[in-house]
Amino acid sequence: MKFYTALIFPILTLLIAGCDMPPEKISEPVSLRVATFNVSMDASNYLTNEQVQTQGATALTDALAQQHPQIKAIAEIIQHTRPDVLVLNEFDYVDVNQGINVFRNDYLQQSQNGESPIDYPYVYLAPVNTGVPSPYDLSGDGVASGTGNDAWGFGWYPGQYGMVVLSKYPIKTDDVRTFQLFKWKDMPGALAPINPNTSEPFYSAEAWQEFRLSSKSHWDVPIDVNGHDLHLLVSHPTPPVFDGKEDRNGRRNFDEIRFWADYIQPHLSDYIYDDNGVTGGLGEKQAFVIAGDLNASIESEDNVPGAIEQLLEHSLVNADKTPTSVGGAQHTPDNQQAATHTASWRKRADYVLPSVFGIELIQSGVFWPATGEPKAELVSSRGASSDHRLVWIDIQLK
């Protein structure tokens, strides 16, 4: 009897345990708004060009501490549009308690001009390449200054033109992948700039070996949206201008955009490695949103041809329902593309592009009220808020 009892007990235990096993988790569809906003909150927004080079590193923290009216207007735009997940471009990388936490607590969580406060309990930010000194003459002027055009990304101090992710949903911080240090040379077929006068490489062999692809950084930020994994793919490629006939910035911009086009395709992403040495890109059947100021437009003659089309025409990207605004159309009435513009300088530069897989794109828009409409004063001039407009999409995760 003792043997029989001992034998049957584990069997019953297994049966009971099996009955208690939770069913496979099935997440219900969830709707949310994802946005990107180049807030232009770097030092050049508050100081003269000369001052930026010597005082720039503290300019944002000083402005935040002074209840700056431009920053209050930016907060009002965010409160009015109310995104659930938000990418901020050109928010300097500074101490969180003097930077993003001040913006959250003293601006976003305080009513601006009658708008309801908004809280983002989850934040992600990390170092960027802008202003990080290189030991090389990257501009080709014969001087290795370590700053400006000789930094790994154009900037006068480390952290200028930084990036931030704000979210109402938990950010899976331990699973974030950053690509700040990825070398441009390691991208197959990289568009390395050529000196048109000599037909030789524009950069020295030593500089090219160390040259970082990202002018700021590339981030894969996974967010847990009620059980759905959403990969927010964040970047801010260099403007394709401010160079010479070698088109070094245009070529870098093209390849910074290409990085995401390759990253979302497993058979093209084997060459990619992150800052922890993990290789490869996004797996198959992963929901993602590519977001940020990509400094590229189908209208632009400055971009390398096809730069933004790498994403807009990508089979895994849903580029339907292009965000538009009445204010943009009014701003440049003789341009048929004007309604899609996201910057005061009359181009579409900012994008929020969802994946085909796992996401239904409901609607989209650009915050750009026309003259006479409510809130139009927030975008009435460069000094009112930013030279860019907040761009949003409403999606449902399936």
Keywords:
single chain, 398 residues, alpha+beta, Deoxyribonuclease I, Chain A, six-stranded mixed β-sheet, five-stranded mixed β-sheet, 9 helices, 22% helix, 18% strand, disordered N terminus
Summarize the structure.
By secondary structure, the chain is of the alpha+beta class. The chain has helices spanning 2-20, 49-55, 59-65, 69-81, 100-108, 205-210, 248-263, 309-312, 326-331, and strands at residues 30-41, 85-91, 122-124, 163-167, 177-178, 218-225, 228-235, 288-293, 350-354, 359-366, 391-397. The strands form two sheets. Strands 3-4-2-1-11-10 form a six-stranded mixed β-sheet, covered by helices on one side.
Structure description:
InterPro entries: Endo/exonu/phosph_ase_sf, Endo/exonuclease/phosphatase. This is Endonuclease/exonuclease/phosphatase family protein. One of its GO terms (molecular function) is endonuclease activity. It comes from Pseudidiomarina marina. The structure is a single chain. The protein is an alpha+beta fold and 398 residues long. It has one domain (30-397): Endonuclease/exonuclease/phosphatase (Deoxyribonuclease I, Chain A). The protein is built from nine helices and eleven strands. It has helices at residues 2-20, 49-55, 59-65, 69-81, 100-108, 205-210, 248-263, 309-312, 326-331, and strands spanning 30-41, 85-91, 122-124, 163-167, 177-178, 218-225, 228-235, 288-293, 350-354, 359-366, 391-397. The strands form two sheets. Strands 3-4-2-1-11-10 form a six-stranded mixed sheet, covered by helices on one side. The protein has a five-stranded mixed sheet with strand order 5-6-7-8-9, with no helix packed on it. The model is unreliable at 1-23 (pLDDT under 50).
